[in-house]
Amino acid sequence: MQIQSHSGNSPMLNVERRRYILSTLNRQGKVLAHELSAALNVSVDTIRRDLRELGDAGQLQRVHGGALPILSTSTKFAVRLQDSSGAKVAIGKAAAQMIRNGQVVILDGGTTTLQVALNLPHSLRATIITTALPVASALSEYENLDVFVVGGQLFRQSPVMVGAAAAKEIQSIRADICFLGVRSLHWEYGASVAFREESDVKRAMVSSAAEVVALCTAEKLGTVSPYIICPISELSSLITEQSVSAETLEPYRTQGLTTIQV
User: Per-residue pLDDT tens for 32-54?
Assistant: First the structure.
């Protein structure tokens, strides 16, 4: 069926067509160019142009054959820290309880992973390796922990250490567990972030740990960011919010990911 503009039988205007695309994306969690072409009775090239312009405007993330939702949150750490929700605290507490005495732990940067550092038991004896300055500062309060901060170039948005030197140092580690901060997590496209500088170091973290736990609030699920860290198959567990539906988590569980809701 052809969708028409409010003026009658004239074709849908560009702005109306793109509004429809965003509405469908929000409702379905994914759009395909050929399906939109059929629904709107326009060429696939027209849809691709719409997707390109919406992607350039930061309203979606283009992928092969269509588009996925993009997470529209502030990238400034100080702003995200002020917005730290009860969900992030709960996720951090649950992650902290997974760490055992004697383990070597990689603790990534981010406001949720900071909650892990803030909620560790003071009796814990472990080795914590991090690239994140706020995490390292929080860990300085624990007398029984051995804390190592990976060096590199300061990436101010997080703030974490990035660069080839940081990735190489992490690759020399064999950790028991890694708690990974992600900007987006999608069952098909895996874990991803907004900046290439972060993705290289996070990828090294994943490859250096026997177990990888993704920490992810509800709004990040089903979204994708430009730089892929790893596929779902390289993650061991996901800790997310209690409010996330079983339907939302099913594609992740199907791929063998253990899901923990708090």
Answer: 988 988 888 889 899 899 989 98
Predicted pLDDT at 8: 40
Q: Are residues 170 and 64 in the same domain?
A: no
- Contact (CB, 8 A) for 122 and 145: no
**Do β-strands 184-186 and 61-63 pair in parallel, antiparallel, or remain unpaired?**
unpaired
Which pLDDT belongs to residue 4?
44
Give the CA distances from residue 118 to residues 27, 122, 173, in Å, rounded to whole numbers and listed in that order.
36, 10, 23
Residues 130 and 177 reside in one and the same domain: yes
Query: In terms of residue numbers, what domain contains 243?
Result: 77-261
Query: How many angstroms separate the CA atoms of 130 and 221, rounded?
Result: 24
Domain count of the fold of the chain: 2
Q: Let me know the angle formed at the C-alpha of 223 by 217 and 227, rounded to the nearest 5 degrees.
A: 105
In a domain, 137, yes or no: yes
29: part of which helix (H) or strand (E)? none
Dump pLDDT digits (tens) for 173-228.
999 999 999 999 999 999 999 889 899 999 999 999 999 999 999 999 999 988 99
Of 240, 232, 231, 245, which is closest to residue 259 (Cα–Cα)? 240
In Å, the largest CA–CA distance within the chain is 73
List the Cα angle 257/116/199 in 5-degree steps: 60
Cα 22 to Cα 72: distance, rounded to the nearest angstrom? 14
What CATH number did the domain enclosing 94 receive?
3.40.50.10470
Q: What is the percentage of the chain residues whose pLDDT exceeds 90?
A: 63
Residue 26 lies in a domain: yes
Indicate if 51 and 85 belong to the same structural domain.
no
Q: What is the mean pLDDT of residues 8-29?
A: 77
